[in-house]
Amino acid sequence: MSLEKRFRPHQFIKFGFIVFVMAAVLALLNWMPTLIQQHRLQRFGSIDEVRKELHISKIYLPTYIPEGLNLAWPPSEVYAQDTPFAACIMQFSFRGRKETELVIQQAAADAPYRLEPAIRIRKRDAGNTITVKDRKALFVRGVCDREVPCCQLTWDEGGTIITLTGKIPAREIVRIAASMLPEK
Questions:
Q1: Range of the domain at 22
Q2: Are residues 65 and 16 in the same domain?
Q3: Which pairs with CB-CB distance under 8 Å and at least 24 residues apart come from 86-93?
Q4: Model-level pTM?
Q5: pLDDT digit string (tens) for 42-78?
Q6: Within this chain, do residues 116 and 130 fall inside the same structural domain, yes or no?
C-alpha cells in the first residue's frame, strides 16, 4: 500500500470539520441554559436593582406602610422577571420576624399564567368590588395557613394586574393600595 492511499488529506479535513461542528454545537448547548435562566423569576436585593437590570416600565411602590403594624421597609424579599412577561413580587415581614405578612405582586395583564404569592388564601369569600382611587378592585377576605385571617385586593392598573395579599387588617390593605396609585 502506498503512502498516498493511507494518508488522504480530504478525509483528514472532513474529520477536522466534523470535530469543529460538534464542538460548536456542544458549546451552544452549554450556553443556552444561562440565556434562558436570565429571564426567569429571580431574586433581587432591592427594587433599584430590579429597575437597573430589567426592562420593566413601571413598578408601583407603596408610599404608606402602617407604622403600627411594624412592617419592615424595604421589602424583605424582591423577585422579578421581564420575560416571558413583566412581573415583580415584593414580600414584607414584620420587623424581627421572617414570616411573610404582606405580598405585593405586579404582573402584565396578558401574562400566560399567574404567579402564586407566598401567602395563599385557603378559604375565601366570594369577594366584593370596591373603589380605590377611582379604580374598581376585587376585595376578598379569607383564611390563610394556620387559620390566620387574611385578605386580598386586586385591580388592573393600565395593563398591569396588581395584587396585595396580607395577614393584616383589611383597611390597611386598602390604604397601602391607595398609596401606590397616582391620581387619574
A1: 3-37
A2: no
A3: 86/54, 86/55, 86/56, 86/57, 86/160, 87/41, 87/111, 87/115, 88/47, 88/50, 88/56, 88/59, 89/41, 89/115, 89/117, 89/118, 90/47, 91/118, 92/65
A4: 0.76
A5: 999 999 999 999 878 789 999 999 888 889 899 999 9
A6: yes
